[in-house]
Amino acid sequence: xxxxxxxxxxxxxxxxxxxxxxxxxxxxxxxxxxxxxxxxxxxxxxxxxxxxxxxxxxxxxxxxxxxxxxxxxxxxxxxxxxxxxxxxxxxxxxxxxxxxxxxxxxxxxxxxxxxxxxxxxxxxxxxxxxxxxxxxxxxxxxxxxxxxxxxxxxxxxxxxxxxxxxxxxxxxxxxxxxxxxxxxxxxxxxxxxxxxxxxxxxxxxxxxxxxxxxxxxxxxxxxxxxxxxxxxxxxxxxxxxxxxxxxxxxxxxxxxxxxxxxxxxxxxxxxxxxxxxxxxxxxxxxxxxxxxxxxxxxxxxxxxxxxxxxxxxxxxxxxxxxxxxxxxxxxxxxxxxxxxxxxxxxxxxxxxxxxxxxxxxxxxxxxxxxxxxxxxxxxxxxxxxxxxxxxxxxxxxxxxxxxx
Length: 404
Ligand SMILES: Cc1cc2nc3c(=O)[nH]c(=O)nc-3n(C[C@H](O)[C@H](O)[C@H](O)COP(=O)(O)OP(=O)(O)OC[C@H]3O[C@@H](n4cnc5c(N)ncnc54)[C@H](O)[C@@H]3O)c2cc1C
Prior knowledge:
By secondary structure, the protein is an alpha+beta fold.
């Protein structure tokens, strides 16, 4: 019987294991944690946004420079396939108002439970608490160290690595794989935080009053980049979080790399043009305080607080100047939050290192899947979708290599 080692028991590794075992291989999954799929389970705390229902063309744009490489994998196992797979495990999905796809239960636990039962029926062996540390000296075997320090080796006809990125390391993926891979000459683009909040030096007054408050339906642009997004951001004690912040994360990283700091322009009324806004602001009543004046234009207390913060406590009295400020309130970002607080990881094994079947060119028979590969995407279900799609592709590559 042909054998497969799957190293890493997240969604990418487990779907690869399912495909390989389904084709009749003897499969062993190794994971360093006491239980598998911990990040998937945590994603379930936020409702488990599995994938997105938008059309294929638009979906592919979410993967930026990696779209070309991911296109065939998303065609072979795309959003509809993922939804069908989920339903097959007793968890039908639905499309939310934003187009995002969720399981009806909004949870990952029933899905993971049913999935592990299916894997057990397929004969997949799970070796938990086994940290992969590298290859044997002759380069053919895999080395593992257990939690108690005992070491073990394993070999198989094919191997799929799906060790994830480096965000939320306490869930298992800590990026410890980078060293052994680079030592073997595999090019790894440095791992960086993606879908992560940013650090802003708020005044204590602003942080005390607005920590946890949403900035609803604002536009965000990295000053000078021309790249803007809309959505709900959230003020934190030390900065900003939320979908639009994550969505322009790559532009923020580029600006920080170039200049050491970055200015975000917050459009507090993206639905109104600057002239329309100025016209409304002209109608200030003589007795209106600054806040009342701004509230009349539809700005809420958090938005008004942000305007005051940007103006050093003061607000411009002139309608034109105020309109310009409302349309581009500057917020100085000093850094992104650390990778251990990020939802996902940018960087990973460079695309040039793998062929179309996700096999490492320098290590025939060894495949790579999931967040370990050098792609990134915003939140919206795109991360899990690509993790599943690459897991299926790696398994298919392994099966093709074995002539199955
Ligand atoms: C809070 C949070 C919420 C999220 N919500 C969503 C969401 O709603 N929608 C979405 O699309 N995405 C979401 N994501 C992202 C998504 O969970 C990941 O993109 C996805 O889990 C990546 O899958 P993976 O299999 O590549 O890696 P992982 O899920 O990280 O799995 C990798 C596995 O490898 C194991 N491992 C790592 N190193 C070793 C080693 N040396 N030896 C042995 N085992 C090892 C780990 O223990 C882990 O089990 C969320 C992430 C976070 C942190």
